[in-house]
C-alpha cells in the first residue's frame, strides 16, 4: 500500500511547511500531499485553509493577499516556537525539495470554496516547466476542476470525496478518472468496496491509526494519506 505524507510530515512538523516536506523527502515513502491556493497576484502557495488565521500569525484570506504579504507571515510558531522561521511555501519551493528524489506529489487544488480561476492550469504549467509533470497527481473536492484537467489529458487526477456516496465509481468514470480519494469513515462502507471491485484506484485520508491502515490494506485500498508516515512505514509492508 502506498504511503503519502499528508501535508508533509504534519504529525511531527507544522503542516504544509518546507520543514514538513523536507522530513518527508528523507523517508522511503511513495509521496507527499500538498494543498494549494492562489494569492491575489496569482502565485501558487501551499497552505490548507482559505484563511491564514489557523496556521500563521496573520489574519485574512489568501486570495486577498499578495505573495509578498503572505511571505511576511510566520506559519510555524502556532505549532511550536522552534519552527518560527517557517514561511508559507510556494509550490515552486516545494518542487525544489523533491528535485533529486523519486517521491510523487499529490497536489490538492483547494478550489472547492473559492474557484481560483486558472489554478489547475497554473499548477500543470509549473509542473511541466519544473519537470514534475509525470510525478504529480492532481486531486480536488472541486470535481469540475478535475474534469477539466482530465479533458486536457495531461496529468493523473483523482476526485476527493468526504460523504458516503452511491455508485461513486460510475460517477468518477463520467468525470474521466478511476482514482477516488475517500475519507476514512467512508473507506469501510459499501461505496469503497464496490468501487474497488469495479477497478477503482482508491486512496484514503487521513489514516493515523495502524489498525485502520492494516484493515484498509486487507480490503485492497491502494494508498493512504497519513500525518505519521514514519510510523506507518514501520508497520506496513
Ligand atoms: O487529499 C487528502 C486530504 O488532504 C483531503 O482533505 O482537508 O486534509 O485537505 P484535507
Ligand atoms: Mg489536503
Automatic annotation (TrEMBL):
Per its UniProt record, what InterPro entries does this chain match? GP_PDE_dom, PLC-like_Pdiesterase_TIM-brl
An example Gene Ontology biological process: lipid metabolic process
Q: Name one GO molecular function term.
A: phosphoric diester hydrolase activity
| Gene3D superfamilies to which the protein is assigned, alphabetical | Phosphatidylinositol (PI) phosphodiesterase
Domain of life assignment: Bacteria
User: Where does the record place the GP-PDE domain?
Assistant: 1-236
- Quote the protein name from its UniProt record: GP-PDE domain-containing protein
Q: Which organism is it from?
A: Planococcus versutus
